[in-house]
């Protein structure tokens, strides 16, 4: 059974100012199996973030259904860890309390929570920054805290909404490498939204190419390139050309 | 006993008692206003329904100057501590309330989303995200409040109470002891400064995470 099942999902927004309906997604079907790393790739406005938000439970589909583990998604929950585009850390909490936020909210032994948090802080390479405040961290470090926070909940799926888009190229490539390492090590299901073709092809086991207005799934491209992936290899370039063409067809039609 | 017998000499030795009563009134009124203002402010900022029910009444009461409540306060509470505390409450309640509402309403939606993502119930989100996020605004309200608290205590003491620095000030005016009038004014200024300093100290402690994000460094 797939971990995530998306059936006939449509999403329409009401533009109250102009009194028109805007269709963000039209008839999206997608099944994500366990341990897959899915990259949702598409131009801005194709509804890829909307789709992710519906899996997270922040938004509801107008039509169709989203199921995680066979359960209909009705709201956000700790079984789905989200890493946001902006780090969205609590500025009044030090790093370790942000990572352990899920546990601290429920009360209990602070010492035990701190030890749990430490494991995940080490995992994302922030050892020594446990007591720093978010304002003292760089963009890349803040995103690592966000990733550690999502991992700590041991969620069924991890949803990432362009988490590296605000980082510089070098940091981004480094973070991509570490994300793949974490994923390979822990075996988990990831849905990753991006508008970067290189990023999608570097990370995913599958790339879901989406088209805009209304948002639809154009193709699901499985990737069997060996890891670590060389973004300058001919095989990588062939795939990139293939995906680019798909995105271009879209542009000439609209 | 407090120099009301017409003798101009008997003010000596009464400073501590007068200052004590004024300070007591300031902090009593301030504490009640803080408790109610923060509590109601969070409720109004968080729940649209509660806001619709309560806000209009509060907004009608707000433009009425606290001083204009003095006659009613005396009728209700007599000449004692209570009318002064009531006045202080009225004057400090609104800045604390309005700042708290603002703080809750401007809480970053994404932080609340992040809290919901880690499985927080609405109550947990309120306690662990909305309240701490609103604290900088709440403290802004508390600082405005403590300033007006001294103004209102002194005003009330001139009219409705027979003790405290305001009473000393007004009473010595009748005896044309302007030296004592000025001494009382300076005392009020210093005590006001002291209480603001205290609030700032607490604020710096609670909001220590803000240092480094602001330019003021470790002031206060």
Write the layout of secondary structure elements.
The complex is a heterodimer of chains A (about 250) and B (about 220).
Chain A: E1 4-15, E2 20-32, E3 37-41, H1 48-56, E4 63-68, E5 71-72, E6 80-83, H2 95-99, H3 101-104, H4 110-123, H5 139-152, E7 157-161, H6 169-186, E8 189-194, H7 197-203, E9 206-211, E10 216-222, H8 234-253
Parallel strand pairs in A: 3-8, 3-9, 6-7, 7-8
Antiparallel strand pairs in A: 1-2, 1-4, 4-5, 9-10
Chain B: H1 15-46, H2 48-61, H3 70-77, H4 81-105, H5 109-117, H6 122-159, H7 165-174, H8 178-206
Helix pairs in contact in B: 1-2, 1-4, 1-6, 1-7, 3-4, 4-6, 5-6, 6-7, 6-8, 7-8
Radius of gyration of chain A: 19 Å
The rough form of chain B would be described as elongated
- CATH-assigned fold name of the domain at 1-79 and 158-164 and 189-254 in chain A: Rossmann fold
Can you write the helix and strand succession of chain B as a string? HHHHHHHH
Low-pLDDT windows of residues of chain A: none
Strand order of the largest sheet of chain A: 6-7-8-3-9-10
Percent strand of chain B equals under 5%
Structural class of chain A, by secondary structure, is: alpha/beta
Kindly report how far apart the N and C termini of chain B lie: 40 Å
Overall 3D shape of chain A: globular
CATH architecture of the domain at 1-79 and 158-164 and 189-254 in chain A: 3-Layer(aba) Sandwich
Number of helices of chain B: 8
Task: Say what oligomer this is.
Answer: heterodimer
CATH superfamily of the domain at 1-79 and 158-164 and 189-254 in chain A: P-loop containing nucleotide triphosphate hydrolases
Question: Average pLDDT value of chain B?
Answer: 88
């Amino acid at each position: 059974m797939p971990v995530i099942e998306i059936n006939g999902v449509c999403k329409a927004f009401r533009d109250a100012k102009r009194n028109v309906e805007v269709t963000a997604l039209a008839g999206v079907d997608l099944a994500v199996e366990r341990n897959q790393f899915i990259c949702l790739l598409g131009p801005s406005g194709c509804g890829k973030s909307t789709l992710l938000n519906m899996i997270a439970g922040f938004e509801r589909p107008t039509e169709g259904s989203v199921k995680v583990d066979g359960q209909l998604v009705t709201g956000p929950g700790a079984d789905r860890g989200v890493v946001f585009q902006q780090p969205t850390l609590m500025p009044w909490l030090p790093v370790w309390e942000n990572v352990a936020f899920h546990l601290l909210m429920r009360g209990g032994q602070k010492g035990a929570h701190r030890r749990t948090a430490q494991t995940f802080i080490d995992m994302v390479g922030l050892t020594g920054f446990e007591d720093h405040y978010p304002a003292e961290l760089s963009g890349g470090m803040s995103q690592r805290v966000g990733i550690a926070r999502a991992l700590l909940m041991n969620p069924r799926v991890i949803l990432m909404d362009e988490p590296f888009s605000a980082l510089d190229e070098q940091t981004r490539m480094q973070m991509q490498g570490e994300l793949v390492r974490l994923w390979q090590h822990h075996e988990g299901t990831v849905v990753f939204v991006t508008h970067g073709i290189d990023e999608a092809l570097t990370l995913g086991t599958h790339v879901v190419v989406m088209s805009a207005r209304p948002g639809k799934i154009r193709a699901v491209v499985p990737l069997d390139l060996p890891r670590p992936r060389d973004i300058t290899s001919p095989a990588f370039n062939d795939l990139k050309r293939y995906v680019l063409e798909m995105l271009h067809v879209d542009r000439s039609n609209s | 006993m407090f120099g009301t017998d017409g003798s101009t000499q008997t003010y000596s030795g009464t400073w501590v008692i007068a200052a004590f009563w004024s300070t007591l009134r300031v902090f009593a009124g301030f504490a009640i206003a803080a408790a109610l203002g923060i509590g109601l402010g969070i409720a109004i900022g968080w729940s649209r329904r509660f806001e619709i029910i309560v806000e209009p009444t509060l907004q009608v009461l707000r433009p009425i100057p606290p001083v204009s409540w003095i006659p009613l306060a005396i009728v209700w509470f007599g000449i004692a501590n209570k009318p002064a505390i009531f006045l202080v409450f009225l004057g400090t309640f609104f800045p604390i309330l309005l700042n708290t509402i603002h703080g809750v309403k401007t809480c970053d939606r994404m932080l609340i989303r992040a809290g919901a993502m880690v499985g927080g119930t609405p109550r947990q989100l309120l306690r662990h995200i909305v309240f701490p996020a609103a604290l900088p605004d709440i403290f802004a309200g508390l600082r405005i409040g403590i300033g007006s608290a001294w103004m209102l205590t002194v005003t009330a003491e001139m009219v409705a109470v027979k003790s405290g620095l305001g009473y000393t000030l007004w009473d010595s005016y009748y005896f044309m002891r302007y030296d004592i009038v000025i001494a009382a004014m300076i005392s009020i200024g210093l005590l006001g400064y002291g209480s603001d300093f205290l609030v700032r100290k607490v604020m710096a402690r609670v909001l220590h995470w803000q240092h480094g994000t602001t330019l003021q460094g470790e002031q206060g």
